[in-house]
C-alpha cells in the first residue's frame, strides 16, 4: 500500500480562511466608526455645584454656587429653573458666561433668569419672580456631553 502525498488543497483553504478573517476584522473596524464607538464623545466635567436658598437677600431667590472642580465654559452649559411639575426651559443668555470655582448664579426669576456674579460683574435679570413656599426644579446640563450636572428640587422660603 502506497500513500500519495497531495498538498494541493491546503493553500486554497488557508487562503479562504484568511480572507474571511480579514473581512470580519474590517467590518468590525468600520462598524466602530459608523456607530461612534471609537471614543470620540466628550467627557463630562467634574464639578461640585450647590443649590440653596439665598440667605443674603430679602428677596425670594436661589443661589447656585460652583464650589470646586472643572470650569464650565460659556456656551457649554444650560440652566433651567421652573416650578416643580413644569417642563424644563433652558436659558442660554446666562450660559454664555464661564462658571468657575467661586462663581455664583443668583436666581430670582424662572428660567428667563438670573445673574452670574463674578468679581462684581452681573449678568441679565428678566422673567417672572420666584414665589415664597414654592418648590423649583433646577437642572444644569453640560451640552457637549449631554450630562446632567444638577437635577434637584429646592423650596424658596
**Shape type:** rod-shaped
The whole-angstrom Rg is 28 Å
In total, the number of strands is 8
Percent helix? 10-25%
Unreliable parts: 111-127
Description:
With 157 residues, the protein is of the alpha+beta class. The chain has one helix at residues 10-34; strands spanning 47-53, 62-69, 77-83, 90-91, 104-107, 115-117, 134-142, 147-156. A four-stranded antiparallel β-sheet has the order 1-2-5-6, with no helix packed on it. Strands 4-3-7-8 form a four-stranded antiparallel β-sheet, with no helix packed on it. The longest helix has 25 residues, at 10-34. The protein starts with 9 loop residues before the first helix and ends with a strand.
Q: Can you tag this structure with a few keywords?
A:
single chain, 157 residues, alpha+beta, 4-stranded antiparallel beta sheet, 1 helix
Structure described in brief:
With 157 residues, the chain is α+β, with helices and mostly antiparallel strands. It has one helix at 10-34, and strands spanning 47-53, 62-69, 77-83, 90-91, 104-107, 115-117, 134-142, 147-156.
Question: What is the fold's blueprint, element by element?
Answer:
Elements (H helix, E strand, L loop, with lengths): L9 H25 L12 E7 L8 E8 L7 E7 L6 E2 L12 E4 L7 E3 L16 E9 L4 E10 L1
Antiparallel strand pairs: 1-2, 2-5, 3-4, 3-7, 5-6, 7-8
